[in-house]
């Protein structure tokens, strides 16, 4: 009996089934994360179906904020509340992050 253990009361269970279930669950999570990573969104929770969401996604890299195709950085994460259709690389995010960078520069260098 390689993969069986006896519980108190003489009941048997198989360790192999729980290991297989754990691996299957882990694989499903990995597939879900890969699908979500394709558009850059790390988390999306719908509060009002189709309209209002809480999302988390990487900030745009500072050096690509002015480019036609901004690249998401891995260091900073945006915690966003708003439209479920928000694009992490969209013009709204480019403008919001440029404004935040300007405010940060003023706080650090003009005070």
Note down, in words, how this protein is organized.
This protein has two domains: 1-38, no CATH class; 40-111, no CATH class. Strands 3-4-5 form a three-stranded antiparallel sheet. It has a two-stranded antiparallel ribbon with strand order 1-2. The protein is built from two helices and five strands, in the order ββαβββα. It has helices spanning 15-37, 91-109; strands at 4-6, 12-14, 43-48, 52-60, 72-83. It has 111 residues and is of the alpha+beta class. A hairpin with a 5-residue loop joins β1 (4-6) and β2 (12-14). The chain is globular. Helix content is 38%, strand content 30%.
Tell me the helix content: 25-40%
> In sequence order, what are the helices and strands, one letter per element?
EEHEEEH
Largest sheet: 3 strands, antiparallel
Structural class: alpha+beta
Please tell me how large the radius of gyration is: 23 Å
Low-confidence stretches: 23-36
Number of helices: 2
- State the domain count: 2
List the main descriptive attributes of the protein structure presented here.
111 residues, 2 domains, 3-stranded antiparallel β-sheet, two-stranded antiparallel ribbon, 5 strands, 38% helix
